[in-house]
Design a protein that fits this description.
A 4-stranded antiparallel sheet has the order 3-1-9-10, covered by helices on one side. Strands 2-7-6-5 form a 4-stranded antiparallel sheet, covered by helices on one side. 28% of the residues lie in helices and 38% in strands. It is an alpha+beta fold. Bound molecules: adenosine-5'-triphosphate and magnesium ion. Adenosine-5'-triphosphate (ATP) is lined by residues 8, 10, 48, 51, 134, 137, 171, 173, 178.
Length: 191
Amino acid sequence: MPSPEVSRVFICIELPSSIRAQGDELQRTLGTLDRHIRWVKPSNLHLTLRFLGEISGARVESVCSSVQRVASRVEPFLVHLSGTGCFPSLRRPRAFWIGVGENQNLTHLFKVLEDELFSSGFAHETRPFSPHLTLGRIRVDRVSARVREALASTKFEAAPFAVTHVTLMQSELRNSGSVYTPLAQAPLKLT
Ligand code: ATP
Ligand code: MG
């Protein structure tokens, strides 16, 4: 039997070009800090709401509808990106990110989406929602004190931007890096 067609997908907030440009600028500033840091292409920068992984074509259709339904019930809101950090910790950085200020609207959007996905058969996300914008991934277990200090002292501040739609994104993992393709860009509720 042929294996059913599957896609790797996630739901995210796309960023305005001004924010991607600021991310690019920060990556350039830190660019030569450590060759083990793989920077996310500025055009790929995004804010993940929910990673779904490999799902069948039929489920992609269903998620598309869920995303559209949720978006139509949530009003546009502002997101303020500020500060930087490392996941899981500065001692063992695997991802270097830009932070998202406390944001009840964003948490609400995540919860509504989570409930909708649960209703259509997806298990609940087990990890707590901790929104962040991944700028780079670190491919070694340990980094030097110099790199740690540089990451720890990196500042970031952007003007708040308006979230106007939610995107269902396909991710294809290629040797040259992941290629993202929007499958649906669902507008938030018109006010
Ligand atoms: P690469 O894996 O080649 O570095 P990528 O991480 O950009 O590329 P994906 O692995 O498809 O591409 O991930 C897409 C988005 O989903 C990213 O924001 C990633 O951080 C997030 N993500 C990936 N895997 C998980 C997971 N298991 N749990 C939560 N979020 C995830
Ligand atoms: Mg990944």
